[in-house]
Design brief:
- By secondary structure, the chain is an all-alpha fold.
Length: 53
C-alpha cells in the first residue's frame, strides 16, 4: 500500500508549476510536505522494532 502511494506521489512533483509567482511561493512548502510524506511512508514500511507488523 505504501509503495503504491509513493509511486502515485512522484508524478505530482510539478503541480505548482515551474515559474511564476505561485510556483515561487508554493514550491518550498510543497517540497517540505512531500519530504515529510515520503519520510512517514518509509517509516511505516520499515519493520517495526516492537515486533508489530
Amino acid at each position: 500500500m505504501t509503495e503504491e502511494f509513493l509511486d502515485e506521489l512522484a508524478p505530482t512533483v510539478d503541480w505548482p508549476g515551474t515559474s511564476g509567482e505561485f510556483a515561487e511561493k508554493a514550491k518550498p512548502q510543497e517540497y517540505k510536505e512531500r519530504q515529510t510524506t515520503k519520510e512517514t511512508m518509509m517509516s511505516v514500511r520499515a519493520p517495526s522494532r516492537c515486533g508489530w507488523r
